Model the fold of this input.
Amino acid sequence: MKKVLKITGISIASLILLVLLIPYIIPNTISKEIENRINQNINGKVEFQNTSLSFFKHFPSLTLSLNNFTLKGAAPFEKETLIQAKQLSFRLNLSTIFSKQVKIDQIFLDQADINIQVDKKGNANYNVYKSDHTPAAAQDGASTAIKIEGIFINKSNLIYNDQSIPMKVNAKGLNYTGNGDLSKAIFDLKSNARIDTLDLYYNNAPYLLHKKVDAKLVTKINTNSLDLMFNENDLKINSLPILFVGKFSFLKDGYDINFKTAAKETDLHNIFTVLPPSIANRMQKTTIKGYAEINASLIGKYLAKQKIMPTLSFNIKVRDGYIANPKAPEAIRNLYLNLQMKLPSLNPDSLYIDMDSLYFNMGKDYVNSVVKLNGLKKSKVFINTRGSIDLTKWGKIFEVSNLKGVYTIDLQADGQFNRKIVRSGIRQVDTVNLIPKFRLKSSLHNGYFKYPSLNASIEKINFDIDGRNTDGNYKHTQLDINAVNLQALSNYIRGSAKIQPGHMGIAINLKSMLNLAEIKQFYPLKDLELNGELNMDLQSKGVYNKARKTFPVTQASFKLTNGRIKTAHFDQPLENIIVDGTLTNKDGTLRGTQVHIKRSLS
Done:
């Protein structure tokens, strides 16, 4: 019995001694083999400060760590860092340590900065892996075998900047766990990912900012065909749960993409949690309820060099929406929305929007709208919108206290918007060719606007607009603007105008009085001092025709008293300005124009 205990004690002591000594006996051998293997298989440059072996980092397995690891990118990004990590570690199969093949089954990346770059031509810095065109290499008795069953990324940051789309993703606080037998030709990779903050930009415009992401993914990977199948995937962006399925295939010069996402039967509040901070922060104390559905897809080939892009689609449905803000006097109720958007080949000129219904009310305020748009340069447009809005209420919701008034709109538009290049002398001018036929009635009553930095406001803003075009020829557009009124302190503008933009026809009747010294109190003036009282009275009716040199028949009077002007460019002001004049044109010709100044500078 004593002999057995003695042998057992010696064995345990030897094992403990082996555990303690192996990290010091063989680190150089293993690390050199790893370094050689990496350099043989990549185009980028690998550097690390030193290596270490430990049984305790991922006990009871032996772990090889490359400390302060750096990997440079592939051409044309050779000078830029693809991965910089505090530690890149490999879990070694202990039973193979003294065999001809040392097996690696797990990879760990700790406190890393991952910088993925794709230029406008589609060249990517991550294409560092060398393809093996020598079949014998697989049978050369290599001393390191990689059979990866797990990939782990901890406390890391990721930047994906693809200038060919153009899209940028910035993920901070990335923690990722992926498990699967990566040595097989076809295998399932089960992943869990958590991102503290995610930013997403498309064409430099932010779509997601500072969003938290949790994801559980199951991906079927076919290494023979280079296909990724996303079959069972649940994501959560802030409070919004999203289902994600699709396929991603690597092609010779790009990718074949088929991604579909959906958030079904969710609460409207969850959608607002993924909006940009400029909106989401304002909604923190807002009660948001209602039924919502979202689905989106990105389908098609992405071949940057051939300028072939996939098609992006986005749909949203909202029912019984309710939005209440403590600062708003009333809640938005009965929010109803059907919206479909499509961007074929990611081409903005092909943008398609079908909002077949938008409705909500807030007390007596309401908006009821249908908007359909197909294309931007040559747009097909259909609009049927009616609404009445108290700007004071909406100003409180969006914390814009310097805007007031009751605005109404009734707009119907149907047709095509198109531009064309016309020759004007030796120049070519881009001009409007067609516009949708439309009928517009719009008004603002008791309007109010104030610059936050100034003391006085512009108030008693009123206008009624009646616009129409019956045939789509922009020259036949008619705008009648009546009951125009603006007042600021003792200043005012009053009158009416009829405008035919295509024919340059006008019928204007305006009266105004401006106390020039008061302007700086309601409108910002920089490096300019004004004084004096300016009265104007204008009646003008007719057509301006450049070729025929004809002008509207006009009768105008203007009178300035006690005028003074001082700019930052001159030390001395121009003052004591007195102007009393009239402008008369009775026949619409340049020769028939008469300007009479009774008195000027004194």
Summary: The first strand starts at residue 46 and ends at 47.
